[in-house]
Design a protein that fits this description.
- Keywords: Kinase, Membrane, Phosphoprotein, Transferase, Transmembrane, Transmembrane helix, Two-component regulatory system.
- The protein has about 475 residues and is α+β, with helices and mostly antiparallel strands.
- Strands 4-3-7-6-5 form a 5-stranded antiparallel β-sheet.
- It has 3 domains: about 15-160, Beta-Lactamase (2-Layer Sandwich); about 205-310; about 310-465, 2-Layer Sandwich (Heat Shock Protein 90).
- The protein has helices at about 1-10, 10-60, 75-80, 155-205, 220-270, 275-310, 315-330, 355-370, 405, 430-440; strands at about 60-65, 65-70, 85-90, 95-100, 120-125, 125-140, 145-155, 315, 340-345, 350, 375-385, 385-395, 440-445, 455-460.
Amino acid sequence: MRRFDLFRKTLFGRTLLFIALIVASGAAALALIARYYAGVASERAYDQLLAGATIQVAEDLYVQGGVLALNLPVAALSTLSRYDLVYYRVVDSRGVVVAGYGDLPSPANSLAARSGPQFANGTYQGQRVRTATLARYLPEEHTPGWAVVTVAQTTHARQQLTNDMSFKVWTLILLMSILAIGASGLAIRRGLRPLARIETIIAARDPADLRPVAADTPSEINAIIGAINGLIGRLAERMTAMQRFIADAAHQMRTPIARLDAQIELLSGEHDPARYAARLDALRATCSDVGRLTGQLLNHAMVIHRTEAVPLQRVELVGLAKEALGRTIPLADERDVSVSFDTDAPQVYIDGDPIGLQEAVSNVLHNALLHGKADDIAVSVAASDAFVTLTVRDNGPGIPREHWEAARRPFERLGQENAMRRTGSGLGLAIVQEVMKAHGGRIGFSFPATGGFAVILTFPRAPTV
């Protein structure tokens, strides 16, 4: 039973089992059809013999002295009795049995028998019999009329002939079925060889070898090869991105950690209280930078992972933006920040990942507060039939137009002239870019006519439920 279960779990086993079931069903249907036609053929063959014997008996009837008599055709009846028991009965025009077995039934219609032999099935002396009935008009009798001849034969020979023909046809069907299943098995194994070659090629690959699989395969398997190569290509892109991210992260972490180590060394050897306090403040600032950089690196990795692993769901953007605004404003520390929120609809829905969206909005607000040094922030949500726009406007210096494209890339420092990114890691807006890409949206920048700087996040609007 366990071997059968393992057989069913293989592609070869499933395909061959399906073909075997189809062949077996077809063989069973053919066997039934063959049995039926064998019965019909044997019935016709023996009916012809039975009809011939009945006609011979009817022809050998004669009238002597006005009385019906029979010159029994022994040769005709012996042909039938060679295979089965044979019974006969002759009834004159008066209905009197003049020859044969008086109790032999004659189920056929005597009127129809006047036009030719009529066949019927019946039982006589506890055995199944096949009867043929024929009527002959004899005007020489005292009472002119129709004499009725009935000849019966048991059905053993018919059944034997049916069994013999059925057995021969069934044997042929069985042999052809075995041949078909065996040929199907060989064809399936031959057809699966390209898959085995692909398996061998992939199994022999080094994990770092992400080149496309190249194999001479039938066109039906090209789709599988294409899917495998597509997956390998995506893995190669992801591996390249991860390696680049790890290298960039290592580079980014190396500088603040070295600065932290140097500041600890300087602090440990400082005895002047004023300079000691200044160095301690610098150490705290560096620790804060390292913590913030580490958090952003982890957030960036989290966003990339959720982009590929987490399905989008229906998200209410107005409430999400308010929640992100409430969590981010306390980062302004002692500064007095003016905040406003405006929306043209109480609720607006998009298809998205709530955690990724929170991270994107928080990073936009974080950049405005900590790097842009803004103290006036206005958040607005506007909805149209197809899109939803979330705008964060502040009164900071903003990002120069020539750096807008670079601002979307990770670890891009825009120069000391840009106050927003002077102390940043270059990851905030890169995280926002990853989130917008995953949501089918886009990030934009502008300098409003009213002043300040605006970051615009545009999302496709979710269909109305």
